[in-house]
Amino acid sequence: MEKTVTSARATAVASIIIVVILLAVVLDHAQVLIAPVLTAIVLGLVLAPFVDFVERRGIPNSAAALLILAFFLFFAGAIFYFAEPIVNRAISNGPMIWAELRSSVEGLRNTVEDVQQIQETMNEALTDGEAAEGAAPAEAENEAVMRIPSIFDVLSYGPAILGGILIFVGTLYFFLTTRRDVYARTCRLIPSLTETLLIEAEARVSRYFLAITMINAGFGAAVMVAMSALGVPQPIMWGLATFLLNFMLYLGPGLITVALLVVGIVTFDGFWAVMPALAFISLNMVESQFVTPTFVGRHMALNPLMVFLSLVFWLWLWGPIGGLVAIPIVVWIRYIVSDGKDDEIPIPAPLPPED
């Protein structure tokens, strides 16, 4: 009997693993189609309560969804409009920053110059016989690597990008207008789910995302002020980068810390070279240890391992888009799996007063 139960459990685990692998393969190969659809649905979960709020004011559902969609597109367009010149300026300064970084580590390169010369001598001795016949392919390979993309290469991505945007906008609008019908049909297919549970789950995702957005905005403003006070170039860019990358918990702050460390080494001398990174780490500690628990609440706290694995999986699968949808998906799945029963952490009753 025990062997039968163990065999059944092993079969179930193996089936789950196979399904997960097949799902990852499908998501990877169908990224062009599934990525904008899933991103739109996740964003629809965030915006759905706002549609209900507008609808309760007497506006029809389709008009309310169109209004919220227009507001979101305007907000995203405004961010892109204001960020574009800052990003272009940072990219244009990239070669100069790289040159200064190379000069700052020139001393380290000099210390290993002898080792490099010995290695080159050994390589020349080993590859002397193959140099003549391998020269032409090597040149062709270098030319292929160094080839600069033409304008036609850039324009070739236009239809794919436009198609992805149209799929995203269309899916988002129709999800906002028909989501209750989708919930009802889903509940008929999966009896363990209820429409109330799905609506509360989307409200949970929306509250979490809204709280994180407000926290990231304040965090970005604080980083911008700190970088400006320290004299770091492009403080607005660092504030904007903090606002956007902090949605990717753990990984986003880590990337900004490394970037600020590089910029500090290039811009300052001595101890001041690490001050930008230290200032960011200090602000991040305040945000993660005090601000986020206060605004989000302990009952919405997520398991760090679950969050990290979700981020790693979706970033590996879809890149930056996966990083944006990873956390809302974890919040939604966590609430659905728990059946809404972990909404509040029970508070123990106070002890009776002593006589």
TrEMBL record:
Superkingdom of source: Bacteria
Cellular component GO terms held in the UniProt record: membrane
Keywords: Membrane, Transmembrane, Transmembrane helix
InterPro entries, alphabetized: AI-2E-like
Transmembrane feature ranges: 7-27, 33-51, 63-83, 154-176, 208-230, 236-263, 270-286, 306-333
Primary localization: membrane
GO biological process terms held by the UniProt record: transmembrane transport
Translocase is among the record's keywords: no
Topology term for the membrane: Multi-pass membrane protein
Localisation per UniProt entry: Membrane
Pfam families per record: AI-2E_transport
Keyword Nucleotide-binding annotated: no
Family in the record: Belongs to the autoinducer-2 exporter (AI-2E) (TC 2.A.86) family.
Protein name, UniProt field: AI-2E family transporter
Organism: Gymnodinialimonas ceratoperidinii
